[in-house]
Amino acid sequence: MSAIELVSSVKSFEGEQRIYKHASAVLGCEMHFSIYLPAASLAGQDCPLMYWLSGLTCTEKNFIEKSGFQRYASEHGLIVVGPDTSPRGEGVADDEGYDLGQGAGFYVNATEGEWAKHFKMYDYVVKELPGVINGNFGVNGHVGICGHSMGGHGALTIALKNPGMFKSVSAMSPIVAPTQVPWGEKALGAYLGDDREAWEAHDAVCLVKGAEERLHLLIDQGTADDFLEEQLRPELLTAACEAAGHSYELRLREGYDHGYYYVASFIGEHIAYHAGVLGGG
Amino acid sequence: MSAIELVSSVKSFEGEQRIYKHASAVLGCEMHFSIYLPAASLAGQDCPLMYWLSGLTCTEKNFIEKSGFQRYASEHGLIVVGPDTSPRGEGVADDEGYDLGQGAGFYVNATEGEWAKHFKMYDYVVKELPGVINGNFGVNGHVGICGHSMGGHGALTIALKNPGMFKSVSAMSPIVAPTQVPWGEKALGAYLGDDREAWEAHDAVCLVKGAEERLHLLIDQGTADDFLEEQLRPELLTAACEAAGHSYELRLREGYDHGYYYVASFIGEHIAYHAGVLGGG
Known about the structure:
The structure is a homodimer.
Chain A: E1 4-12, E2 15-24, E3 29-37, H1 39-42, E4 47-53, H2 62-66, H3 70-76, E5 79-83, H4 121-136, E6 139-148, H5 150-161, E7 168-172, H6 182-192, H7 196-200, H8 204-209, E8 217-222, H9 228-232, H10 234-244, E9 248-253, H11 260-278
Parallel strand pairs in A: 4-5, 4-6, 6-7, 7-8, 8-9
Antiparallel strand pairs in A: 1-2, 2-3, 3-5
């Protein structure tokens, strides 16, 4: 395993909000990730862990600076890890659009053209990063995953594709059907090519149909979200869950939009949900 | 009174986080301010009000994006208003340093050179902005003031210089003695000139000595703050309070630094303190 290097560590709600960097073999570049260690973890206790996956344009910093999640992670003794949203750096392919390339990895393994060399965010989040975290921090094996927008898509699809890996999953304003919406069609087309069957392996609505595991899906959505009707379409996921008999809950938030004021308003509920399933630190 | 124009409004913890702009007659430029309106205010109830003054380099956005204060303002039914830290724009004087000029108004009325035309942040915060707020929003007359770093200096000096205007004051990692530290010497020298007596009218340690009103001073300070020994020196204020018989409390926070993770960790205590003095919304 490659070494990790501390970039910053700041005390926050009795714990520490840290950023580390490491050389990612999977992505072929240097990657940053954030980790919040509650006081119990700093005192040597093994704690439950929640991965947070961010949305388009984000780095590992947006969630830790803007959501205020640390208060809740501190209360519940939860470690929270947040990777960057794509490979980065010179020599890594990019696109002028905010919704493709750096900042927009979509949590898949690219197979096409210039993207195939570095854009393996699925393997990074599912394989490499957990190895790094488990090898360097005191985690107790109880793991949840949560995300926002593109990261909500990542959380749902990664949980559905890896039965047993997560005990809890939730998503805030997720892209639930990337095979049917513009953001998804653009990114999956670029990263995975023209074969739409390959896309379906990264579409929560498709995955629910054949899910091996009935892990409960907690979905959160603001009703004033500008992306709701064109890009997010949670009704496609709830319909798929109903048809497949898959357990879910949709929490609609009247008047809330897509941004971090929305995330900040409800991240406490999500962390309480994950902590309730995972057990305290 | 000049009209205010809504720049943005986003739902946050059942209230709304808004930014407005207006033409400031005092500053001679367009100014932005933030205002959080809790649900009770949106429902038409007059609410107590807390002004928040930010530190060096900040605009009206840093506090509203990074502190997570909205949760607490929502709980306590408190309106929170945050001005920018200086006049802005083309034609407004500036300096290459982060600690002078735009982003560094220091809450004084400049008398010197190029600064005298626009840098009247004291009059803006004490006179013009309260007029704008009282004329446009449902406030109940119970007002507090709080700030961070340069804004902590602003909160303390403005409260000390205006007996009866505020019922509560608190400061997080404030500059308490600008006449004795590099940040203050640079800014006060530039804005107010060589006469150090003029500086003393904007120095909390000096003002405590002759304070007409014994308004309790709540001071908050992280012990791992990189600016503690050279720029902040809270012991000068506590000594001045002891000598003058002025009521104060210093809350030291072991291991916390100067940044927004520190502010986020303790802003809840400050808002609870102000709300307790001011009464609920």
